[in-house]
Each structure stands twice: as C-alpha cells, then as structure tokens.
Request: fold
Amino acid sequence: MTITLGQQQQLHARTLSALTIALASIIGFLAFTWPLFVTAENDQAARWLFLALMPLVTVVAIIEITYGGLNVKALAFLGVLSATGAALRAIGAGAVGLEPIWFLIIIGGRALGKRFGFILGLTTMLASALLTGGVGPWLAFQMMCAAWIGWGAGALPQIRSKSFEIILLAGYGAMIAVLFGLLMDLQLWPWIVSPASSIAYVPGASILENLQRFFIFHFATALAWDIPRAIFNIILIVVLGPAVLHSLRRAMQRGNVVFNRVHAM
Amino acid sequence: MNRVNEVRTLHPLAWWFWGISLAIATSRTANVWLLAIIITATIVVTFARRSNDPWAAALTIGIKIACVALFIRMVIAIIFGVPGDGRVLFTLPRIRLPEWLAGILLGGDVTSERLNFVLMESLTIFALVITLAGASSLANPKQTLRSLPGILHEAGVALIISTTLIPHFAMSLKRISQARKLRGDEKRFSFKRSVIPLFEESLERALIMAESMEARGYGHKPDAVAGGRKKAPTILILIGTGTLLFSLLQMLIGSRYAITLAFSIFFLACGLTLGNQMNTRSKYRPIPWRKEELLVMVASIGAITLAIIANFAFNPLIAGALLLTCMAPLCVTSGKARS
Amino acid sequence: MHGASLRYIWQGPLMISFENVTLIYPYVQRTIFENLSFDVPEGEFVLIMGDTGAGKSTLLRLMNGLVPHHTGGIFSGAIRIDGRDTALQKPRDLVDLIAIVGQNPALGFVTDTVEEELVFGMESLGIAPEVMRKRVEDTLDLLALAPLRERKLTSLSGGEQQRVAIASVLTMNPKILLLDEPTSALDPIAAEEVLATLSRLVHDLGLTVIIAEHKLERVLQFVDRVIYVKDQQHVAIGAPEEILKDSPLAPPIIQLSRALKSDQVPMTVRDARRSISHLAQQITPPVRLSANPLAKEILSISDLTIRYGEKIALRDVWLTVKAGEVLAVMGRNGAGKSTLLTSMIGLRERASGAIEVLGKDPHTLHGADLISHVGFVPQEASDLLYGQSVLEELRNSDRDSHVPPGTTERALFDLLPEIDLTVHPRDLSEGERLCLVLAIVLARKPALLVLDEPTRGLDYQAKERLVAAIGRMISDSTAVILASHDVEIVADVATRVVVLADGEIVADGEVSDILTSSPAFAPQVAKVLSPARWLTVSEVLQSLGENK
Reply:
C-alpha cells in the first residue's frame, strides 16, 4: 500500500521527474566516487565542484519529489516520520553507529514506497541536522545516502509472507549499514587523508590501485563502526520491524473513496 | 510594532549567504594566513551574535568535529607516511605489508616538514566546517524554512512540521519511559516499549495533522494553474541535470567541461526560477531584506574576490580587507540573535 | 423507519442539507449512516449529541467532506453546503465556507507560534499579504488572543489552544464552523470561555456553529438546535427541549427534573431553580459516609516541596490518605495536580519532604514491588500500551506483575465484559482503552490507585463503568486518588476533595463541603438545589425512594 503521490494525469510529468532524480542520483554517486578515477589535471576542480554540486543536486531531487507532487497526507507523514527519526537519532546518541534513524527510514520506505522512502531519507537527515547543528559539508552526502537507503527499501521485491519480508529487510539493513559506512568513508577520504600519506588517493592512478588504498583507509578507520551498525539494524528490524511496519500500513489503509451517485435521487 | 529598540539580527538567508561565501572563499585559497583570518572572523562573529537556542550550539559542535578531523588526519599521516626529506622527529617501526599492497607504506620516519604540511593543509577543512557551522548557529532554522522560495514550499512545510515536533517527541519519549515504570518494567531502556508507543503516537498525529491541514485549505489550487502546470520547469530541470552530468563526466575523463557546466547551471537556474514563479502561495509578514542584508551580501562577495586576488598578490593590505569583509555582519547587527 | 421522515421543516435559508446520505467504511465492513436526511438553517448554534461510537465525529466530518475524502468509504446521497456539493469538492476547496476544529487541536498544529498558526491556511490559499495582515488582527481581537500572538503554542493552556485553533480557521472567513468535542479536555472555567466565544460568533457574526459534545451540561444552555445521533439509522433534529424531553442521554439538571417527576425540560441552572427546585423541598440530602478515622494509613506525604528549575511546583504539601478513601485532587491547569500525583510513584525529584506508601518510599520501589504498592494511570493512558493486540497486552501484564496467567484478563472482563481480545489497542475507543490500562494496573492489586484525569474523552456510559470499577476496587485496605476537572464524577465517587492552587493545598475536606462552597466546582445539582447540600441525581433518587 503506497501513498499515491500526485495525481494520475501527471503521470507524464512524474516520469520526467523520476528521470531527473535518477540523473541527480548518478551525479551524487560520482560525487562519492570521483577520487577513484579522477585525472591528475582536474583533481582540484573535481574536489571543489563535487562538494558544491552535491547540495544543488540534493535540492533538485527534493524539488522534483515535493513540488506539487505530494498530497497532504504524504506531507504530514513525511514531517511526522522525519521528526520521529530525528528524535530517535537523539537517543541513539550516535554511539558507535547505533543510530535507530536507519531503521525508521528503511521501514518508512518499505511501507510507503520507494519515492516516499527517497524523500523521507532526505528530510529526516536535514531536519535533524538543522536542529542539532549537524550542518556541514558532509550533510548533502548523508542526505543522498539516506535517500538511496529509503528508496532501496521500497524497491525491494514485494513478498507476501510477513516473516520472509522481515528477513529480507534485516538482510537489507545489514547490507546498507556496511554500504553506508563505505560511501561516507569514500566521501571523507579525499578530505581526511592528507596527500602526504600513503593511503591517499592518487589522481590519475588506476581505479584498482586507488581502491586498494581506499580499502586500507576504510579498514583502518571505519570498519569498527560498520559491524555494530549492521548488527544493530538487524536487531531493530527483527524486534520492532513487524509491529512498526504493521502500524504504518494500518495507518495508510484508509484509502479509496467510492461515490455512489446512483442512489442519490 | 516598534523595531527600533529590538535586537538587530540578519535575515536567516543572509547568514547563510555569509557562511557559504566564506566557505567558497576558503576553497579559493591555500594561504594559511587567509584561512586563519576566515576562521577567526567566523568564530568571533558567531560567538558575538548567536542566541541561546539549541541550534546555536552548532559552532561548538563544528569546532569539535573539525578538531577530531584534524586529529585523525594527523594520525593517518603519521602512520601511513610517505618518505620525504626533512628533520626526522621520531621513527615508527616499519611494518611490511603483503606483496599485493605494494604501494602502501606503514610506519617509518616522521618528519617535521610533513607534519607541518599536513597541519597547514588541514586548515582548509577546518575553515570549511567552521564557516558552515557558524551560519547554522546564527540562522534560526524555522525562520530559514519559512523564508525558502516558493518552489521549496512543500519541503519547507514538511521540515517545519518535523522541526516543530522533534522536541515534542523527545519529551514524549521521556514520558513513555516513565510510563514503563508504571507497568513494573525494571529494565532501564527497552526499544520495543519506547519506540512502539512513540511510533503509534506519531502516526496518529500524522493523520490528525493531515486532516487539520486539509481542512485549512492546504493544497488548494486555483483553477488557472491546476492543470498542465509544472511541465516546463520539469523539462528545463531535466535538461539541466542531464547536461550537468555530462559536464562532470567530461571533467573526469580530463576534457574541457567549462562550457557544458555553464549551460547546465543556466538551464537549472531557468527551471528553478520558472517553477518558483508558478507558486500560488503568499507569505505573511516576510522577514524584510534591508540594506544591512545587502551590505553583508556585498561584503561576502568581496571576501570571495579578495581570497582569489590574494592567490596572486598577497600583502597585509589584502589580509586586512579580508578580515573587514568577513566581519561585516558584526558591524550591521547588534546583540544576540533573536530566536 | 428511516431518517427520511425526520426531516426538520424550515422555511429560511438552508446552510447544510443532507439528502439520503449513506456511508459505509469498507475496512470495518460497517454501515455508519443509512439514508440520512436533514437540514440545518443558517446562523444557528447546533449541538450533535449521541453515545461514543454512534458517529458524532463522523457526522461532523461528513459535513465538510473529510469523510469520505480523507478516510475513504463508500458514500451515496448528497450533502450540500450552501448549495455546493461535497462530493464534487475536496475539503480544501471548501475552506471559505466550512471549517473544522478537531478533537485535540494541539495535535493539529503545524507551526509553533500563535501568529504563524493563524496564517498557515491563508498562505496556502495565496491570500494577499495586506489582506492576511488585516484578518489576523481582526481575528486576534475577536477571540481575545492579541496578548498571546507571539507565544509558543506549547506554552498555551487548553482553553487558549482551543481558541487558537478556532482562530486559525476563522481567518479564512468560513460561514460554518464545526467543532469536535471543544470542551471535553478543558477545566470548567476554560470551557465556559470557549463556549462564550462560540456563542458570540453565532450572535455577532451570524456564523453557523455545529459542535459535537458529550458534556451536555456545559453546552445545552447555548444551543438553538440539537441533532441526536441514536444509531446508524436514527438521527433526530429539533429544538433542545423537544429532543431532550425523553432522550436517554441527559445532563444532570434534566435527570434531576425527571427524578422529581417534573415535566419541565430545564436548559439552564436558572430555569431549573425556577421550575423544579421547589419539588425537592421535602427531602433532605443523605449523609455521606466519611472515612473511618481508625482505618489504615495508605499514603502519607509530609512537607513535600518539588521544584522544576527555578519554579516551585509544589510547596510544603502535607497529605494523608486512609484506606477506604477516594480522594479527588482538583484545581486549575498548572496548579500542580499532575506533579503531586506523579510524585506518589517516585517519578519526581523532591526538593524536600517525604512520601510513604504503606510505610515505604516509592523512590526505593521498583518493578513488580512498586506496582503492588501504587497503581498509576497516566493522563496519556496509551503510553503504557505497546502490544499488537489486547491479548498480547494482557499476557505482558501478567508477566510484568508476576501474577498467574489470566489474572489481567479477568480484571479486564470485570470492567468490559464484551471486548474483542484480537483488536489492536489503538483501535479501541478512548473508554475501552482506559479500561484496558486500568485492568493492567489493577492486576497486581495495588494498595493505592492513582488516576490522572481519567475522564477525558469519556462518555456517560464509560464514566459509569469507571465509577463502578472504582467502587469495586475500594476496600478497607485500599485507597484511590484521582485528579479531575470533571465535577460530576468527583461528586459521584469521591469521599474527600483537595484543592490545589499554585502548588499549595488551599482546601481539604468532605466532598459536599468543598463542592458546594465553590461556584467553579459545584455540580449542576448542587447549583440548582442550593443551599441544600445535594451533589448528584442519584442522591436525590435515593432520598425520594426512602421517602416513599
């Protein structure tokens, strides 16, 4: 049961906006991975350009989903769910990656569809950053990552059996925990690793060589966060997932209206 | 209302303009002195003008994050060193890595030149984090959301709802955890027993809120724009995004990309402006954009220009001018920012 | 016989007209209304009354189209609001005509200050800034909200929140205002304020105001017309006297009038004093049993002071409660009632003083040990619920309280004989949910039961159940404490009343002493029959029975 975003007659416009979001996501992906295959002469340009363009494409994605395309109910759910996520983020305290925020984005995306999951990821991150002072160059990267996570949860295949669905989501939760760590590290890599060290990226070097360096960096720094995060996601999804998923679907169940004009005489 | 005696602060978007401009200035220079000026100016202005609201802590958090980043950077540079000339401070045992990790060095000599280089170069990151954190300390997030252009109205409303509710839900969590005690629950924290009631409460709230918004005309569209709207901006934005991707790919493979990049930004700007003009909502008592805000804008652009010029000709005069432009908001505001 | 024949005949301009309306909610497979027809004329103050679950809220929400546009459902027939068909127009397109304020307005607030909330609707309609400015000022004046314009919505009292919610829809200049239970969460004074405001809107601006409310004693004196929703097929509309003459639902004064065998249908205390008070001259109020002075002491609070930062919430409170007592704690919002109650379960840090329940400090008690001493039902009773079904809740409760399986279930069946155990707790009605929480709290048989505002949102029937439950629970080894604004229920169950103001106890005594001496707290029967010290209709009935 997904929220119907927008009206039927705007289907055409929606295809266009889906295309834009896909392109924006590709740009986002490049913004994470550019150090792997940047050429030596454009190294500095890529560094700053991607940093500047990431917020821009994030805003474009937000506009494409929200502008005239969200009904009141979806909007209220978006606001309330991202507040819940941000409130949970506060209690998770970020200790060793134990952030219940991912759980909420996954379940939200799963119950309300991939498009909603995408925007939920964006707004949850943004709202909590605005209130808790987490605004920095990394924000747009985090938002884009969260958006993909929400989208992915909605895009996973539909499964009838409730328990299999939870297993699937738990597996997904573990996977994205690792992937999120990987992507955020990738984004951090060119900034936090000084060129004066042997695990910095080398502009113009082969992808394989750069990947090797990156993984050393990743294993050395962030892996310790990924594993607890993955385990935490699995536990939350298994323990709370069925109930929360059920409640969300129950809340969305109020659906179609039938106006029966035959009897109205 | 009499605004004369009030504390003068800036339009939230002016604060952001200032912060982002300083961040851009940061990116345009590698000069240690200029970076130090930008950092100092940001910290002075922010501490002088921030309020007591929760988001005002952003700068303190930013400084912490930046220091941690600096520290990690140093540690990495020490452990994974690249051999170079210079005075050796100390030597770490060199660890041999397996054959397939040939290019990576672990341990070895640590020279003062290298540490110096890493530290100086880290100032860029430091400045980048601080300038944005400064702006987010100073700009009231709710007023920022209220002043967003019409094209971001929906997203703004969703964010207004959530920023309004976050403190509320934090209180609900507290209330719920107290309630657990009433059932004889002895555990200190239980996700199931805290998150589920919170979640149910928030869903109920979402439904009520949706009704309340609907009943107050939210989403009402005048007949004139109800059909066929949004097409033109959507297409322009699509072209813009496509061209942008193309130009970035050009850049990555090392060919010329400036013209396509300019085109893509042009298309995006057109699309966004056009979309913005189709907005039918009105704004109640918008925060005025006065000459103070204009002055800060001019000064911020000035700071970027000075940072670029300083790359070619650095002298104390330019440094002084940069400090002055960065501090501009301090001169046109007074007291602590109002929440 | 279906609704069609109950059409009210009226010659003037019609504001709302229902024509053969039938509504079915597909998910619950239940017909909500069948073939309903009635009209509401312009400029009237209309009350919708009926039992909980009869469909008061649904009827209200049908009028502006939230049902079925928002909730889903199968709808047939036609509803016209000032000639416009609600099936063809969404609620958001009808805002210039009809506006609704929900049951708990604080939950519907979108922004966080009064002024922003007032303009939210106008901004989405794209009303010109100058017009907005003017309307905001007008509305602030009309509802006396000007001093609050920059206040945070969360800092407002219940009555103020209700008025802000009304203001936030009035800015769009509707002709009809719908309100769902506008006074049920308010103390008597705030309720009076809100109702007076509504009455002014009807009289001065010619607005049509329709409210659904179950506290009939508060609203009847203001209304011109009553719509009585008996069940899905029977909806009556008429003058208040006509409808209330023999409706099973009636406020205390009308019950009193019936008890005294008068054929008058008094709407106000003044009417009743003139028309029926003389009928009670012959009988005398029964003597209320006071607590046994030798009974065991259940709770003792000595010299308690509680601070929140700078603010003193409770100051030097001394209080003892003996077994067999039902103590009502009354007072304005913010007087410290909740603080006093929650301190009894050790949830508040004390600045000084001591609290003992059966000789033990609740701060030192944990888990099952705590709940065998004190059972607490918080204001938001559903905070205690996290299960996916009533059955799961019952099992969790047995486990938490270390009682044999089935204990909580028995406690629940005592309160609510016909409850479906497979239902999700959130789908229960307010009253049913309270019963479930009560059952959970009572499973361990606590010596002291504490209830914080238990009657919010309860109808007469649910209140009777609550009164019965309290009656059953009270014995020579237990005591009950409840905080409430609801004078009628206090008159019904309490043996003793404590009045708090500004964190201090300002009165402590027998129910009849306290309730009859204060105009704000006096129940209707007491007002009608004063100076004789009557409190409830059942007392009158009891005395009449004895007299015969």
Summary: Chain B touches chain A through 109 residues (CB under 8 Å). The beta strands of chain B are 88-95, 106-111. The first strand of chain B starts at residue 88 and ends at 95.
